[in-house]
Design brief:
binds potassium ion, 17 helices, multifunctional enzyme, UDP-N-acetylmuramoyl-L-alanine:D-glutamate ligase, 12-stranded mixed beta sheet, alpha/beta, 2 domains, Rossmann fold, 40% helix, binds ligand LP7C6HRI
């Protein structure tokens, strides 16, 4: 059965080799991959002609299988072959197709079987132009396995101009490029064809939607979880995070406002002084520190004090610029950090994770901090010590507005106060609530508008 695993090219090659060692051949795998892809193409073609651009490797081989299967189903199929097939399986697939390639074609569905996971460098100018012209000359574009011209492992786009596809059909397993920027922008809809690849415990995963629980019948505000949000110089961010947390499952949210917060919701308890007294409350289940904290010496001391309490804690925003290893010494409680790209770099510099690609950096930081790292952005990725990364499916691009990070931190902290899952599971719950709230909020929302959609997002996950 197809799984949610995300494989690197070398993991994919090892998986393919394991199947071959178990008695399959590359040709039977190609047959399965091509037939599965042809099923999807047949559906979207809806009777229209199909043009397949075949490259020299096994991705091209898949293309010849697709050509044969679709022609047998009665579609008009045109194959364009700038290269002759170079692998035994691709040669056999071309022979089995048995047709004559054409120079060019237009109209109907264009299928890119030029290169897959074997792409070694950017397409040359001639190929880039040919690919783009063919894509533009058709009504619908489909990429088989991955669009040609992207790096499967890093998600890098290697050419300046590449087509944007309507559908990408991943073969055997997801690759990072399907879910990572910038390549994921080219993919269109994504579908996975199962070719029998086994589950790999060392593989990254595409996050699955969690199931949340409603409160127990005998729940009270403390049993559901008391969260303290520790703010600072810019109190608005703390109010926003606390307001999200109130809707994320925690039974009680208190905000320690470092400065006068102005208008606050009537159901938010705001404490103005006595941080040590507040944090001495044994009923506190989790802490959030960072949104609006500031970066002064006072902020640094406050962060050190908060972390020294050794309670389950979420660190976000300014806290990520102030965080140092000594503040974490001796801590035993779970820690979740929620950096955006700039904060991830700042953490990387402090904790010595530089010069790595994003996947490595997230894993490395999770080990160094002994924390869950939520590297947020259009391709949010989560790392935890000793576990492969988990990648969130994309969320609404309207989330790219100020304050939505505070909402995310508040939601994760709220789930931490509820505390029903592992720290990684908790962080995923927060990310899914955020994603669903954004989906339900529709277009052009503000971070404040997002708050109104959290209860319904919760409902989706129950
Ligand atoms: N992994 C599996 O289980 C299966 C994968 N299948 C498909 O096979 C491709 C990967 O095939 P591979 O032959 O390794 O790579 P490509 O088809 O991508 O092409 C490699 C080929 O192209 C040359 N090359 C690389 N980059 C360039 C370039 N920029 N310009 C010109 N030439 C280039 C390189 O030297 C090689 O000759 C995978 O994606 C699936 O689609 C099968 O279905 C079987 C199961
Ligand atoms: K391709």
């Amino acid at each position: 059965m197809a799984s949610n695993q995300i494989l690197t090219v070398s993991q994919m090659q090892a998986a393919e080799q394991a199947l071959v060692d178990a008695g399959e051949t590359v040709s039977t795998l190609m047959e399965r991959a091509g037939a599965g892809a042809a099923d999807w193409i047949w559906r979207v073609a809806a009777g229209r002609a199909v043009t397949i651009l075949c490259g020299p490797g096994n991705n091209g081989g898949d293309g010849y299988v697709i050509a044969r299967v679709l022609a047998a189903r009665g579609l008009t199929v045109r194959v364009i072959a700038p290269f002759s097939p170079k692998t035994p399986a691709a040669r056999a697939a071309r022979e089995a197709w048995g047709g004559e390639p054409v120079e060019t074609a237009k109209g109907g569905v264009f299928v890119d079987c030029l290169f897959g996971s074997g792409l070694a460098r950017a397409l040359d100018q001639v190929l880039e132009t040919r690919l783009c012209e063919l894509a533009a000359a058709h009504d619908l574009c489909v990429a088989v396995d991955v669009p040609s011209g992207i790096d499967c492992d890093s998600g890098e786009v290697l050419n300046d101009t590449l087509p944007i596809y309507d559908l990408t059909i991943a073969l055997g397993a997801w690759k990072f490029a399907h879910w990572m920027m910038p390549a994921m922008q080219l993919m269109g809809e994504r579908r996975l064809v199962d070719i029998g690849v086994a589950f790999d415990w060392d593989a990254a995963q595409l996050a699955e939607r969690p199931v949340l629980s409603p409160p127990e019948a005998d729940a009270h505000k403390y049993s559901r979880g008391l969260l303290a949000v520790v703010g600072g110089e810019m109190p608005g961010a703390g109010v926003l995070a606390a307001s999200a947390a109130m809707r994320g499952g925690a039974g009680y949210v208190k905000l320690y406002a470092g400065a006068e917060p102005g208008l606050v919701p009537p159901d938010l308890v705001v404490v103005h002084d006595g941080l040590d007294e507040l944090l001495a409350d044994e009923r506190i289940a989790a802490l959030l520190v960072g949104p609006g904290l500031g970066r002064s010496e006072e902020a640094r001391a406050r962060l050190a004090f908060v972390l020294g309490c050794d309670l389950p804690t979420v660190c976000d925003a300014d806290a990520l610029h102030l965080l140092t290893a000594d503040m974490l010494e001796g801590r035993l409680s779970p820690l979740i950090v929620t950096p955006h790209a700039g904060e991830l770099d700042a953490l990387g510099h402090t904790f010595g994770s530089v010069g790595l690609d994003r996947v490595e950096q997230v894993s490395d930081l999770a080990e160094a901090l002994e924390a869950v790292v939520v590297a947020k952005g259009p391709d949010t990725m989560l790392g935890a010590p000793g576990t492969p990364v988990v990648v969130m499916p994309p969320a609404s691009a309207w989330l790219s507005t100020a304050g939505t990070g505070d909402v995310l931190a508040g939601l994760i902290a709220s789930r931490l106060a509820v505390g029903m899952d592992s720290p990684l599971g908790i962080a995923l719950e927060g990310c899914w609530l955020h994603r669903e709230a954004a989906r339900l909020a529709g277009p052009a929302f503000s971070a404040g508008d997002l708050l109104d959609h959290i209860p319904d997002a919760y409902g989706v996950l129950l």
